[in-house]
Amino acid sequence: MGDSEESFLNTPMLDSFHAGDYSSWWKSYGEYGIVAAVVIGILIPLSCSTIFMGKKRGKQRGVPVEVGGEAGYAVRNARATELIEVPWKEATTMAALFEQSCKRYSQSQFLGTRKLINREFVTGSDGRKFEKLHLGDYEWLTYAEVFDRACNFASGLVQLGHNVDSRAAIFSETRAEWFIALQGCFRQNITVVTVYASLGEDALIHSLNETSVSTLICDAKQLKKLAAISSKVNSIENVIYFEDDESSVDTSFSGSMGSWKVASFSEVEGLGMKSPVQPSLPSKNGIAVVMYTSGSTGLPKGVMITHGNIVATCAGVMTVIPSLGAQDVYLAYLPLAHVFELAAESVMLAAGCKVGYGSALTLTDTSNKIKKGTKGDTSALKPTVMTAVPAILDRVRDGVLRKVEGGGGLVKNLFNFGYKRRLAAVEGSWFGAWGLEKMLWDVIVFNKIRSVLGGHIRFILGGGAPLSGDTQRFINICMGAPIGQAYGLTETFAGATFSEADDTTVGRVGPPLPCCYVKLVSWEEGGYKTSDKPLPRGEIVIGGHSVTAGYFKNEQKTNEVYKVDERGIRWFYSGDIGTFHPDGCLEIIDRKKDIVKLQHGEYISLGKVEAALLSSNYVDNLMLYADPFHNNCVALVVPVRQALEKWAREAGIRYNDFADLCEKSEAVNEVQQSFSKVGKDAKLDKFEIPAKIKLLPEPWTPESGLVTAALKIKREQLKTKFKNDLQKLYG
């Protein structure tokens, strides 16, 4: 994420899945070979499946438990009678975990970065210039080398003059040096403040001043932004920048930053190498990170995350991902300033995995910033494990379907037939899901698709927002990997629930992790009660070792949502509404803040309706809006450009540009009709279907401040920006 011409939100994850690729593959395979394979793929499994048919026996994944605190329906992980606190006995802090992992796997490859060979700028048809990168292979640091660099950086901080009793902030895109800087700070018991690289100026100033940061660690390209706000930031004494192969640093910035000391990351490492300083290691209750949430409303809040919180989540997640270890390769590209990515990379560290860094704009062979003919990150790295937020997985699905649609009748029919067979198998027999038929359809259809993400993905960590069941099934089949649907918040260091690899159900987020309890507490006002039948419902409350210490310098807000019970267990009240299934798996069904009472007394859940309407092929993003003084709702919609333009061509609609098309009444009606269809399929009530919509041609990006880094909409910001449009929709 950052100052790119396209955003993380807009990344065409599957642009490398071309109809032409499918066509050449078809010819090389041969039409008769395909027919023969299809016959084998149907007849043999059909003849055998009668032996294996039948539903798998249900597995108990979570069990009810008696806990303290407010009355409710509580569940623990079925495999852990006591909450686990650490991945192994000695790893009580992140500093200890880091040192021990680096010793365990000292000669194994750890952090990988691609070398920049060259860059060029091309001019698009609209006159805009686009940056294209030629990236080489991954170059690796071993665990031992990373440990040495972190120790050198830690010593260098002290030599530079950083006051070890003050905080350091990291304001950078995801990269190996980010992680090394973090671990270096932990070696000197320095609390790290994390700041999104895309954070707006006001929020950046607020987070730095509120935490009295004395050392700021950043990308070289952020120096210009820092120079512009230097007069508004009170406590900074040192600025350390990451050198970039592709750009030189404008040293004039150091003069414009007043008394700030400005040094490169390698210079600080050099200081530490020459004059080592003994580590000052933290305790498990010490604050490791103050993480500023991107926030859907107002200024961001700083969540105080302890070392114990981080190692507890690591311990919990390591029990869920099957056989995670040194043979695994993890693709790191989400923002490390987001709890989801930081938790994931911490887990990979604990398990001894390789971590290769990429970016959302260089992921595939035809991503926006990849030079034609150059490998994208997935092709170069061939990861086995990756994280993905629902918005990305939705785009993967849409990208595949568009390419299949454009591949012609034979390709489309073969894909659809194979997909239906695999879907029926996954939802039916064990044999069909994992046996001969799966292997045959993989050879015939799906291996080609999987090559887009490197061809070796075996597990996807999903989180950040609700994932639709259709998309989850689609990814399971087309990418051949289970999605570990996780539920957690910054306030629980991402640790709450996690679906297990052998759970083939959709729409749920699994049982509680072994490091915490999850409890439902009745919300009478909203009509959600733990006594509801057939399943208990209520506000989701998380208690245990992953629950953080509260909000930085915000005792009032902390006391509103954090409670400590009579047994000493700390609970966080999430504001989300959930239900527990009989096997102990949680499903998120609503959010307290998203419920609006309409004029005639009906309640409408904005989040629930938005999730249903997002399944329209025309929708890239949307925000539902309900005014309590009216009896219906309206919506702001960002359309999928390719889909709407394709419809317009086929319908013979004339337009000047995409913005003009979005104003056409015919286009508005087409999208609205799609809402009626998907709404009916989702069993939405009539008042839940938007009475009017406004099509907006520009995507909502983290850079624009309209969505968070996890791509969740910022409702208040959207309402403010499009206030006039919303008023006209109700006019």
What does this entry look like structurally?
The protein is α/β, with parallel strands linked by helices and 731 residues long. Among the domains are: 105 residues, Luciferase, domain 3 (Roll), CATH 2.30.38.10; 210 residues, Rossmann fold (3-Layer(aba) Sandwich), CATH 3.40.50; 132 residues, 2-Layer Sandwich (GMP Synthetase, Chain A, domain 3), CATH 3.30.300. Helix content is 36%, strand content 21%. It has 24 helices and 28 strands. The strands form 5 sheets. The protein has an 8-stranded mixed beta sheet with strand order 4-3-13-12-14-15-16-17, sandwiched between helices. It has an 8-stranded mixed beta sheet with strand order 9-8-7-5-6-10-11-20, sandwiched between helices. A hairpin with a 6-residue loop joins strand 26 and strand 27. Helix 3 crosses helix 4 and helix 3 packs across helix 11. The longest helix is centred in the N-terminal third of the chain and has 22 residues. The radius of gyration is 26 Å and the shape is globular. The N terminus is likely disordered. It comes from Ziziphus jujuba var. spinosa. It is found in: Cytoplasm. Its main location: cytoplasm.
